[in-house]
Please model this.
Amino acid sequence: MSAINEKPELHVVAVGNAIVDVIANSDDAFLKKHDIAKGGMTLIDEPRATAIYADMAAGIENSGGSAANTVACIASFGGRGGYIGKVADDDLGRIFAHDLKSLGIAFDATPMSGGPSTARCLINVTKDAQRSMATFLGAAGHVGPDDVSEDLVAAAAITYLEGYLFEQPVARDAFAKAGDIARAAGRKLAITLSDGFVVDRNRDALLEFIPQHVDILFANQVEAEMLFGVKAEALDDAARKLCPLTAITMSEKGSRLVTRDGPSVAVPAVPPAQLVDTTGAGDAYAAGVLFGLASGRDLETAGRLGSLAASEVISHFGARPQKDLKTLAEANGLL
Amino acid sequence: MSAINEKPELHVVAVGNAIVDVIANSDDAFLKKHDIAKGGMTLIDEPRATAIYADMAAGIENSGGSAANTVACIASFGGRGGYIGKVADDDLGRIFAHDLKSLGIAFDATPMSGGPSTARCLINVTKDAQRSMATFLGAAGHVGPDDVSEDLVAAAAITYLEGYLFEQPVARDAFAKAGDIARAAGRKLAITLSDGFVVDRNRDALLEFIPQHVDILFANQVEAEMLFGVKAEALDDAARKLCPLTAITMSEKGSRLVTRDGPSVAVPAVPPAQLVDTTGAGDAYAAGVLFGLASGRDLETAGRLGSLAASEVISHFGARPQKDLKTLAEANGLL
Model:
């Protein structure tokens, strides 16, 4: 990957599912009754969302969405971020927009009226600290090419695409448009695979999309193995062929930054003060890497910023950072 | 106070402001800028709510409302509760209703349409752990006599009124109706003064309403002194004249249960495992006392259930219990 040498107005613009999380305590019987995959993410329609919510325990609500969590971390690093996503004209949509704007993130989408309501992710937390997600995509899945602002994408060093959205044909068109704008403006495009099921259901399309558009690919070990169809050692070679830079995360074993042009960089994980909730670890890791690269740091520093952000986010409930990541990174000599 | 000797279907029905809390970190400059009383509760109109929210940090949302918190604790004690309050037909209203119903609390209010939106309490938490509340009452303030279900009040051992609502003339009519139904059904009526400003602005009306309707009065020391116009020692005599039973709370000094017919009972506070957030202490204390009395326990046990519930609630963020109060009370030999 070549350096980003023009000074962009924004570090990262993220495109993703604009989702409000609803979090409540639950048990295995509940997951079984509602056919929710334990520890995973299940897409549900509105009637199922209504039925599950009616049966869920009392909960708390906060803004989520994978790429939105990432850009929230970018802001916490002191970076300038933007967000492209779709909410409805309802309370949850207003909460989602508020929570991004309050972080100084550019987010100007006009809410959808008369269509589906704002997306919600019903998160049932079992006593073993596993979080099982059932997501009603609602308005979020309607991100299309019209939502991709040329000004925003052209102003950002990196545009970061959430793999979950790759499931929606109209969003895939939006991704291609973002890729074209980024390329024309001399910017970079990044994508995360998000979840094994995304790879499983869209492998061929991803293998076509990535070499055409993507400069930076994020995947965990399982997703990478599914995408490339090879295991451990052969992974790096396959990744080099597909994409200039691939970041492969391996939970507590850290990550590998695999470049086409140079040696791979192994990045250790940062053990959290306490492990409370792993949700958002990948989102935070991506933020560190993206902020590092977008602000001109070297690969290893970028990776270590990613490990640091992930460590902060898994030390408490909720996928957005509670400590200031800039302060934390400075204290660790990374900024 | 005579014993509650018929077996009621419900232990407690609460009438209150149906509010969703929005909680975010803040600082003193923010409070000053928006003229929010530190540590207190300020009533605001919708334009101010919009302006404050737009300026607030990203936050989390959960159901609140003082009397609703109390009835949530009643449910946690294993009690049967009901709730009367007003929400709008919007996301926050659905969240509020969900969170009560999911606890098994009877709540059947038809949401208001076309009027103000569901009430929200904007809670700004400063670094010194103080929570400063700015409340837009919206639909909540529209509780009127039509909302007071005769079946619900007659079915409950005790109907518990939230003093904040005493500010609204139409709610005051609802309170009087609840008092009449409770009396006719041989049930008890309880009220909490909620806040010094409620007493300050409605002292004469309270001094008229209480002897006419109320069997159990909840007040903290400051509110009680404001209501009775006397200090410490003289308080008990004044309370005895006004109401059969008065529970006076004194933070970490515990509480006094002052009865017209017998000696006052001093109840020690239960020190929390850790003091995190005092919001909801009074709501939880009232729940313990009400559940104790409604389930036929003696005064001292009722008071100790109150102290125990308050201790649980102040040991974490949020005004609703996170541990099962029934289990906790059993472990402490109180149930």
User: Anything to note?
Assistant: The longest helix of chain A spans residues 196-213. The CA atoms of residues 219 and 248 of chain A lie 5 Å apart. The longest strand of chain A covers residues 19-25. Chain A has two domains: 1-17+66-85+143-335, 19-64+87-140.
